[in-house]
Structures are given as C-alpha cells and as structure tokens.
UniProtKB/TrEMBL annotation, chains A, B:
Highest rank taxon of the organism: Bacteria
SMART domains xref list: CBS, MgtE_N
NCBIfam families given in the database record: mgtE
Transmembrane segments: 290-308, 314-343, 364-385, 391-413, 425-452
The organism of origin for this protein: Thiorhodococcus drewsii AZ1
PANTHER family reported for this sequence: MAGNESIUM TRANSPORTER MGTE
Keyword NADP: no
Occurrences of domain CBS (ranges): 143-206, 208-264
Primary role: Acts as a magnesium transporter.
Known partners and oligomeric status: Homodimer.
The protein, known as: Magnesium transporter MgtE
Record membrane topology: Multi-pass membrane protein
Family listed: Belongs to the SLC41A transporter family.
Amino acid sequence: MTVPVPSNPDNTRLEDLQQVLQQGGMRRAARMLNALQPAEIAHLLESLPPKERELVWNLVEAEYDGEVLTYLHDDVREHLIRLMDTGELIAAMGSLDTDDLADMLQDLPVAITQEVVKSLDQQRRDRLEKALSFDEDSAGGLMNTDTVTVRPEMTLDVVMRYLRRLKDGLPDITDNLIVVDRKGHYLGVLYLTDLLTHDPEDTVAEAMTLDVQAIPASWSAREVATRFEQHDLVTAPVVDEDGSLLGRITVDDVMDVIREEADHQFLGQAGLSETEDMFAPVLLSARRRALWLGVNLLTAFLAAWVIGRFEATIQQVVALAVLMPVVASMGGIAGTQTLTLAIRGLALGQLSINNARWLLWKEMAVAGINSVIWAIVVALVAKLWFHDTDIALVIGAAISINLLAAAFSGALLPLALERFGIDPALAGGVILTTVTDVIGFLSFLGLATIFLL
Amino acid sequence: MTVPVPSNPDNTRLEDLQQVLQQGGMRRAARMLNALQPAEIAHLLESLPPKERELVWNLVEAEYDGEVLTYLHDDVREHLIRLMDTGELIAAMGSLDTDDLADMLQDLPVAITQEVVKSLDQQRRDRLEKALSFDEDSAGGLMNTDTVTVRPEMTLDVVMRYLRRLKDGLPDITDNLIVVDRKGHYLGVLYLTDLLTHDPEDTVAEAMTLDVQAIPASWSAREVATRFEQHDLVTAPVVDEDGSLLGRITVDDVMDVIREEADHQFLGQAGLSETEDMFAPVLLSARRRALWLGVNLLTAFLAAWVIGRFEATIQQVVALAVLMPVVASMGGIAGTQTLTLAIRGLALGQLSINNARWLLWKEMAVAGINSVIWAIVVALVAKLWFHDTDIALVIGAAISINLLAAAFSGALLPLALERFGIDPALAGGVILTTVTDVIGFLSFLGLATIFLL
C-alpha cells in the first residue's frame, strides 16, 4: 500500500494538458484526461476556447460523456451536444440518474428527446415524468429519488442486515436512512453514526433523530440552500403537502445552487447570464452584448437629452461641462454601494419589507454625512480650479442632492423591483445609474441656470 | 410519534419575532428564539438594526452565545462582543471547538484573549496553538481535529465494536473513518456506507477507498472548495508535507467559504467589505463609504481634467458637452462586461496566463463587431439630433476606439492586478472606468479639436 501523493491544485492541469497536446501526445492527453473526475473534465473543457475544446471533448471516453455534460454550464453543454450524433447522445443520457436526465432533456433537440425517452424502461420513464413535473429551481427539482427508508419498529440489527443485502450498496452521499411509517409519511432520520454507535438491539424509533424537518417540494432552491447552511445538513428529506416522502436533496447539489446564485448576482450586474461561456463563439457573444449596450445607450441618451436642455447655460459657463461628470459619477458610486448592500440583503433573506425602513433610514443618514463632506471638498476644488464661488456653491449643492437621491433609490429600488417581479441583480444597476445621472445633471445644470446666468 | 410539520421558510421569522416583541411578549420571543439553530439566530440578528439587535441578543440563552457568535459576520460579531462582560465571554468561548475558538480569538480584546487562553486545559491550549499556526484561509485553518481513525488490518467487526465504545459518539458530519498506518500517515478512508454493507469479517484494507486524496494543509480555501465541488465530497482528510494526518475538513465549512468568496466578489466591486453589516452604525459606515467615494472622486477629477484640456473646443461646439457622457458610458458598460467575465474566470481557476491570450482575442473580436454597430447607431442619432455630419463621424470614431480599449483593458486588467498582488474584485472596476472615461473623453474631444475646429 502506498501513501497517496497530495495532488496539485487544479490550476496547473490546463498547463500540463496543453503541453502534452502541443507535443502531439494525444494518447497521453487522453489518459491524463480520463483519469480525472467528470467535474474536473468539465472544468477543463470550460477553460478551453472552442477549437481546443472540441479536440479535448473527443478524447473523453464515451462512458463519461453523460456525467461530464451534467457539470457544464448551459452554453458549453449546448456547444458539445451539437457535436454528438443521436447514438452517442442516447448512450450518454442512458448513463444518467433520472434527476440529471430531467435537467439535461431541456437542452436537447426535440427529436433526440423523443428518442431518449423511447429508450427508457417504464420505471425510468415514470420517474422522469415525475422529475419533470417539478420546477427546476424548487426543492422538488433538486431532489433525487434514491432514498433508502426504514421503519421505526425495526431493530438496528435488522437494519444492518437489510443494508448488507442491498444489491447496489448505499447511494453516494448517504449520512442517514429515512424513517417512514407504513403509508410512506416522513417521521425522522436515522443517522448512520447513530446506527453504528447504538446498541444493535435498540429499535429505529429509539435511535432516530426527530429534529431534522423535511423540506416541502415547493420550497425554492434558495430556501433549500439557506436551510442546509443554517442546519449544517448533508442530506435532507423532501416531502409533499401531506408529508409523504418524495426523495432527498444532497449537499453537492446545494453547493451548485449557492455557486449559481452567486454567479447570477455577480454576472447579472454586468448584464451577463450565469450560463455565459468565457469562450463563447464571437457572433453569439457580440449579439448578447449588443443587446445590453443598446439598453444602456438608451439611458445614456436620456442623460444626454437632459444636458441638451441646458446647452445655452453650458455655452455661457463652459466650466459646467468640465465638472458635470463629477456630479454624476459621485452619485453613481454612492448609489451602487447602497444598492449592492440591499441586493445582497435580499438574496440572503435578511432584507424584507419589515426592515427596509431601517435600512433606508441608516443609508440616508450615511448619505447625509457624506453629502456634507463631499459637497465641501468638491466645492473647494471647483473654487480653486475656476476661481468662481458661485460655481463652487452650485456644484456643492448638486453633489449633496445627488448623494441623497442615490441612497434613497439604492435602498428602495431592489425591493420595488422584486415586488414587480423584475430581477434586481439584473436591472438594479442600470436603473440606478440612470437615476443618478439624470438627477446629477438636472440638479447641477438646473441650479447653474438659476444662479449663474 | 407525530409527523413533523414542514416549517416555514426563514423569511417569515423576522416578522413573527417583531410582532411578538411589539406586543411586549419578551418571554415568548425568547422561547421562539432559543428554539432555533444557532445559525438561524445569527441570521435573525443580522436582519435587525443595532437597538433591536441588542435587545434580541439579550434574549439568547448563554449556552448558545458562543456558537451564535461563530456564525455572524465580523462586524456584527464585534458589535455583540462589545456588549458582553469578561465572564460571559469566557463562558461563551469555553463552549467552542478549538478551530472556531481560533477564528474568534482574533476579534477579542487582548486582555480577554489572555483570560480565555488561561482558562483552557493544557490539551486544548496545545490544539489552539496548532490551529493558530495555520493561515485562516488555508486548508489548515479550515480543518477540525476531531478525526476518528482506524488501521487497515482491523476487521470491520472490530471497527464496529470500537465505535460503539466511543464515549462521545461520532462527531457531526462523519461520512467516513480515516485509515492511517502506525505512524499516522494517511492511507485512505473507510466510508460508513462501506462499513455497513461489507461482510463484518472483511478487513478495513479490503473495504476502504483509496481514491480520496488527502488535502495538503497549505492549500488555499479556494482550492479546497474547488476540490469539494468537483469530487462531491462531504469531508476530506488534511495532511502535512509528509502525508501525516492533521485533521479533516467538513462540507459545512466549505459552503461558508463559497458564500464568503461570492460575497467578497459581489460586494468588493462596490468597494464594500464582505464583513459589512447591513445595519452598521451610521458613523462607521459613513467613514468607510467616504474612503471609497474619495478614491472615486480622484478618478472623476482626472476625467474632468481631461475635459478641461478641451474647454476651448467645447465653447465652440457645445453639442460635444451634450454627447460626451455617451462615449464614456458605452465604454464603461462594455469594459465592465469583459472585466466581470475575466474576474469570474480567475475566481473559478478557469482563467490563467495560459488561456488569457484566447480570451483577449475573443473579447477584441466581440468588441470589434459591437464597435462598428454602435459607432453607426450613435453617429446616426447624433446626425439627426445636431444636423452635423462631422460631429456624427467624430463620435462614431470615438465610440469605436473606446469599445476596443474597454475590451483590451477589461480582459487584461484582472490578470495584471493579480500578478501585482492587488485584488481584482476590489480595484478592477475603479481602474477600468477610469481608463474608459479618460480614453472616451480624450478620443472624442481630441478628434473634435482636430476635425471640427
């Protein structure tokens, strides 16, 4: 028996693979690749641009194809699926669990979906139908049906004999057996650690834990993730409205939920989708980016139109043109800070209509202090630069107004958007900077028109 | 035995608690609160503004204090620690695992730290010293020392008898026993599921799994998280350079790492710390925000200074002042998209010096297409608005230049910053928009000066 050598972190793998490929060592590259976990192969594929990705994908052994596909982001997955013929796809799908299959089917061409469904036996087809009946982002959509159940009146000794007779062994990531009554209602869980440390003569009822509450199938993926994080769960049972056991959720899928939510929040602010492939085809990327640039161009022209209303003022006091981006920029930065805090609060379930008033009050107070400080600083700089006290006073006032408006809209916008069913992570930033641009230009040029001309 | 009622998602808890508190039901509120998991209490406390938070904190039973504190973000934790007297703090710290205690000690006043250390027995003090010797963000810093080890030559029957004699039972989140040789070198793991399904006469060596590689204590928390995600791990052994077992990492701590990294990335872009308390004291918040506003004010004045170089030009063609924010804004938006993609790629370990060239090429190609499209659109709008073909041509050219510069800096900036040890999530956005503002104003007003006057 040899001591396993600690492996390298994953970021050197790409380099190794590139070297082997450059030396034309296709067989060695294939061996390296197929020694990895499916998730690691998926990670490598996502680190490669399209041509190299196709080359490496062809080196992956057919038996891993299905599982590797489940770990890829949608865009990359679609790319690789397009390279496979019907036979390969059906074989790949055949190797998947029902719940992974259900997720994947939605990305397949309709003709192939039908072929795949036809190739399943009746039991798998029934399970698939059930899996497809739940929303992908709900507890029902997250769960697996590979539960191992026991009854409260069994002794632990009987349970252990039963487990030894299971022909496939226990499923991966099993930390407990689920205790149900005769009718399949959830009662509690029997942790394997309790099974192993209690007297074998004890009954399941004596060794089981009652305080793991089952998760209703209708809960959102976000609620499930919060529950797992707060209760340090490894697996959790899922039940229907009557408390009947439907399946179980495992922590590996919950980690994916957390990662996807985080990606959505981070990429959404730049108008990118969380499925975005870093090496997406140029034309596809260009089209998606164009859309976002178009939306933002509209808001930029709105701001320009506001400035246009004051052409005559700018003509007379050209310093206004020099200083006006400062007013807009300060408002945008301050507003984004409040907005970001509010979006995170919403995502964590820590901000709601119940405490929004407090957040608003606090953010307005913070903005109040900063509006005084920065009004003075900017006014002083403007005075030194343009030797004009009136301009200094006007820009100071405009900065103050814009910082207060920024805090107000940054704090309330996310809740308002959510109420209207609009995703704050996606739309919040665009709307906020439109508000701060317009209010910034309007207050600065408006005050200038009144007091400087 | 009753069927546990599916509990409400967590976001209604705050409302319930508020209602009870408003009705003055302090005892009922305390009962509600102390029925929750420590992590849930922590979550609730973070959803409350300072005064209410202090009130609720006093309702938490002393025995939960320590664990609740471990789940709080740094800022909130410090706030509550300041409310506790030395006796309370020592009691709270006494209830913690060594690894949690090590994390917490750094937030305590020095005098109290000494008191706490004095109150520990020698074994705990040694463990604490060991835990403190690892970087908080390394595998060593993440691990617990509560490992249960077995030897390869034991039979499973002997292992099971050994487990039944453990006086404290098995630690929470145990999916395997760690197999070590006589000298404590890591050999592999024995999954509880294999222990339960194999013949009791088999030896550990026959039932154990060899392909769970141990994690070196020096790995970063980010590398550990990637390993857990890609191998669907629940726990993983941690070893030193010689392969000697040091401890184990559990998936609940890894979920916290993923959450914190995501928070850092998301909040960092707005210049906020991931420890930021949504209801931080106004003065503290105002001071932190002021810093970020100050940094951004400098960049805004840099942009203003560039505009100031062209005062004479703007004086003659005031339409330039109206249109110039459009050029800067389009560059900022496009650059942020590329930057966001690159920062995520870096964070996932999918972008490195090895494939940066590809990303740069692709982003430049995407920007190339969009620079043509939006140059034409913006030029047409400018032409219709100001009836001036020269202005239209100048703004079109400036948009093109700025979109290309934005893609170039968005793709390369994160890698360059990382190489210099600067956090791209924090500094990337500020630097990028400075670049796009300056290049936008410079190209637009510069070209205008050359061709319009």
